[in-house]
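Escalated from tier 1: pyridoxal-5'-phosphate holo job.
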Amino acid sequence: MSIERLVRKQLHGPPRRSATRMSVAGVEDMISLAAGDPNFLLPEYIAEEMKKAVLEGCTHYCFGGDPELKAEVAKYYSKYGYKTDPSQVILTNGGSQSIYHSYAAILDEGDEVVAFDPAYSGGTMVPAYFGAKTVFAPLKKDETGFYDFDEEALKKAITKKTKAMYIENPGNPSGKVYGEKECKVIADLANDHDFVVVSDETYTEFIWTGEQHFPIITLPGMENRTIIAMALTKMFSWAGVRTGWVISGPELNDYVSRVPGSGISWPVQRAAIKALRDGYQFVLDMRAEYEERLDYGVKRLNELPGVKCPKPEGAFYLFPDITGTGMTSMEFTQKLMEEEHVRIIPGSSYGAGTGEGNVRLSMIRPLSTQKMSSWFEHKKGLMFEDAMDRIEAFVKRHVK
Ligand SMILES: Cc1ncc(COP(=O)(O)O)c(C=O)c1O
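Tier 2 regenerated the structure:
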């Protein structure tokens, strides 16, 4: 008997291990800059809401989602200039489910989804589960090592089968922010070629250029061809709590809302209401710490031979170009792990390979000067500076 006959074709073959999630047991002094799991602990006034909700009886079904949360989410979008009705908000168990839900609403067998390369794998691997194909449009690396928008490459990736485009705005791992100008190019293509944009807006609160997030859904013709896929995972540093949503225009939402869902934890919804109402200072405080880490990391990496590190426009990852070290991104990350016990992610593991030559560092380790309460112990030898010291020692040992 072959088990493979019993399971979906996409699951056949050797097991796939996510480089981000791989745990390394027994390496005591390991510093992981791998997962995008923010280190900050949730403020008590938000956490308390969950307990209060449980004690008050929010332990039953909450069909359709808590109306107060849906209203808060709608209000949140008005700050970015999109007026949405709470009925357009569908709550999910986080960003990954928002992405699944979006694709489940639009993809048929044989459809194509265009995505930038490199891009977040959780957005580009999923279309296959609906019998659809992801077609990559390479971003263009500039002389600083930054992956930028490439209109021509995007146009080339669009075919008659294109049903959707997946964009993460800001991008992970690219750090690219698509502002009004670029969103207009994408929106024109979506309108001309009649496809949907799945707009993954997970990092909207983490933009470093001084601009505000620009939601593509606000452009002409886009309201009923955009699905916003969002999560509070990064915004409130609660990757393990699992909360997100999808939003689409009223006509499209009529269909998006037909996708079966599980509903989400009601106590968590009550905490999300509190977070959205009163938690913005917490977001601002985290943002300040992230930016200090980014600036520190950019400076340290640019001092290294063979390494170029642009400051990202958004999100909280550094994505330096390490081609000058003579190592592939896989060799670099593996040797760094073996020799220095620092975990980072090879650029080749995002998308179709355009990210080769770069590596991703997640800014989840505090600097020793930072004071916000953190999931990681502030421990000598394991702070962000220590990770950078080890990376420096590693590069200097290998690059003469
Ligand atoms: C661009 C992007 N979208 C979605 C997600 C998934 O978020 P969640 O943990 O809420 O499923 C991530 C996580 O890193 C991400 O980087």
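The chain is about 35% helix and 15% strand.
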